[in-house]
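Troubleshooting: if your tokenizer reports a length mismatch, compare your output against this known-good record of 333 residues.
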Amino acid sequence: EKQDKEDASFRATLRLRHPSTRASSISTAPYTTTKIFMPVAKTSRKSGHVGASSIVLTDDQKENIRYHVHLLLAERVYPTTEQILNRILGDDPNFPIRSVTVLWRWMKKLGFAYKKTSKVIVPLDSPFNMAARARYFAKISELRNNGTLIFWQDETWCNQNEEKTFIWADRDTGAGRLRQSTGKGKRLAISALMSPSGFHASSIDIFECNEDHNMNSAHFLIWIDRTASLLRKELGNISLLSFSLLFFGLGKGTKIILVIDNATWHSRLTNDTTPPKRSWRKEAIIRWLKSHNIVVPEKAVKAELLEIALDNLPPKKYEIDEAAKKYNVGILR
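Known-good structure output:
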């Protein structure tokens, strides 16, 4: 009787702890049998595959992703998944990837890696860069030997209320900070020329801009036109120049070269040398071919027309080069 009470108590405890159980019988004594209740796992409610079906890309679609990544890099723009996706959908509205997250995963599958910039190895010593660097220094040496006046151009930016990050201050009174402004204020872009004798003060351009763009092609084109005209006028009027210019014999026929980098806003092509883009309609590509006196096949598809256009591109002409050329000022990149 005592054994029966203990078994009943044990079964009650198991039922309270494990409501969903099944019983199994084991022998606890030579002439008695005890039922032990074991927990039973609930069956899964899932039936079949759950979630969206996986996206499968063709080889052409994979190449399209690679193409837009390298196109942004060629434009000297750091690619982001959002930029890449917008360009792909603009080129192909039926592209199967519609999500930035899915594009991220596919980029990893295609061999791209999202890394900190300081960890990315840049092939600065590739044959292409070595050859470009050699041509640049050879041209600079030639210009210097010819007595050409060389100016280097670059842009930078600052905030209106910008101040030093660390300063010396009185520990007791806190005196030492010269500005008591809140916020960074307006963002200002600065474009200037520098020669061996220093900054060319009369051509310095300071203007308000936003955080994304310090300069744009239209503004830079106007600045180049104004600056080239100013340089030519200054060099044409010897009596108003400094003694250093007189010493070097600079006059109206003096050669002037502006050295610039390959920023996007420096490299906008003229309308007649701008190549057709993949996003253009077929009719626009045909018009481009006809305007350049290129025979258009009758039954060619868009891809074939684009291939013909790219095989017959005219020599590149840049808008800023043409603007400076009007004043006999050259551009070196």
